Amino acid sequence: MNKVYQDFMTEIIQEIVTEDPDFKGYQIEKQSRFNSLVKEGKIRIIPDIVVKTVNEEYPLIIDAKYKRDKSNADYYQIIAYSLALPNCKSFFLSTPNLKKAH
Fold it and tell me: Is the pLDDT of residue 64 over 60?
């Protein structure tokens, strides 16, 4: 289900970027790989959705999780993205609102 949710979020964001004139010059990348977290480049991070400009700037990184509750590990992952990509302006953890059945 997590993969389906990631694909769903990617398609929605791609549609917005494609159709909204405010996003002219922006692109969506899915599962981009970065090895800039540590100087040696041995740790690779792979955000789910990357919004980037044609100038290789990264205004938004999105991590999509299909699960009921966020964990500390999810937040640590977003923090790792922010450390690896310090020029990125925003990081977003996306989870659907899954209500527990009573």
Answer: yes
**Lowest mean pLDDT across 20-24, 39-43, 60-64, 87-91:** 39-43
Q: Which of 89, 30, 97 is nearest to 67 (CA)?
A: 97
pTM for the predicted model, two decimal places: 0.79
Q: What is the DSSP letter of 15?
A: H
> Rg of the Cα trace of the chain?
14
Q: What is the DSSP string of 41-98?
A: ----B--SEEEEETTS---EEEEE--SSS--HHHHHHHHHHHHH-TT--EEEEE----
* Alpha-carbon distance values, 35 to 9, 28, 40, 61 (Å): 24, 19, 8, 15
Element (DSSP H or E) covering residue 22? none
Please name the residues in contact with 77: beta carbons below 8 A apart, sequence gap of 6 or more.
63
